[in-house]
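Design review, sub-item: ligand-bound model
Attendees: FS, YL, KQ
YL presented the inputs for the flavin-adenine dinucleotide complex:
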Amino acid sequence: MDKPVKTLDVLIIGAGPAGLTAAIYASKFKLSTLVLEDEIVGGQIKEAYTIENWPGFLNISGNDFVEKLVEQATGSGAVIDEFDSIISLKLTDTKKTIETASAVYNPKAVIIAAGSKRRELPVPEEKKFHGNGIHYCELCDGHIYNNKEIAVVGGGNSALLAVKFMTKYANKITIIQQFGYFQAEKKVQDEVLSNPIVNVLWDSEVRHAVGEKKLESLIIENVKTKKTAKLQVDGVFVFIGLAPRTDMYKNYISIDKYGYIVAGENTQTNVKGVFAAGDVRSKLFRQLTTAASDGTVSALMAEKFINSNGG
Ligand SMILES: Cc1cc2nc3c(=O)[nH]c(=O)nc-3n(C[C@H](O)[C@H](O)[C@H](O)COP(=O)(O)OP(=O)(O)OC[C@H]3O[C@@H](n4cnc5c(N)ncnc54)[C@H](O)[C@@H]3O)c2cc1C
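KQ shared the predicted structure:
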């Protein structure tokens, strides 16, 4: 059966803070607005235990924050299409076509707010143990490791906050850190390192994940001595940075050497009527407030583009 072909004003890719902010603005301008999200709504911030730097709130959980954004976006008329994947797209100055599993869209303007995703553990066995021994979200999967031994890879805030969270469940936690120091805030480091169930393998990287049906151990290499050792674990949580989700745009949109979309503060990409907002854009700082700022600017730019007959 042929898919329905739909025209609309603004199509936003990604329902994180940038995409949802753009949706609030675009729909308030009475532009027909669709947000495509191929996972659950909210983006990275839904994983935050607490947010303490969103102006106007002393603190709010990631989930509550996302709930409010969604309420505000849909309340002003935006439609959010969750779990719908983009199969193909074509983005030119004169025509934009985006095909998903359920429909073909011809929007006048496109806002790419696709954010970033956690980098996967670079071992050949990643796919075999993904979600079954190798994990990226302690809030989602941490409870599986009650009274078990785990490892956490990474030394930034995300890694050490995950360690702190996992002390509720695990009976032994080994942090595997590629440097001889942590990048996380000192306060978090002190809290984590004073816990007797936590120990650290400095200057170390994971080379293999080993196990028959489930993960049983990791092969760790000391990057200074080049010696390898086996670490018995039931699970490993990985926090080794983020990578932008921009592969599918590269035939049309300029991408920088780190994979981010090239667009200035006005969020305009090299294609007329296509804007990039939030963490996906090449820029210095990636925060909630900067994502919301980009979301706002991109919607204002999209409105201007459509009403100047560009769209
Ligand atoms: C655990 C954690 C805690 C954090 N805490 C804070 C904090 O306290 N304060 C702060 O300022 N920042 C915090 N951050 C950073 C903040 O969450 C990000 O800067 C912000 O979420 C960026 O928003 P975004 O909308 O640009 O991208 P994202 O949040 O990454 O959202 C992008 C969305 O696009 C979707 N998407 C991507 N590609 C496609 C596609 N092809 N089709 C459909 N959908 C797609 C993704 O699934 C995702 O939902 C935290 C991040 C993490 C991971």
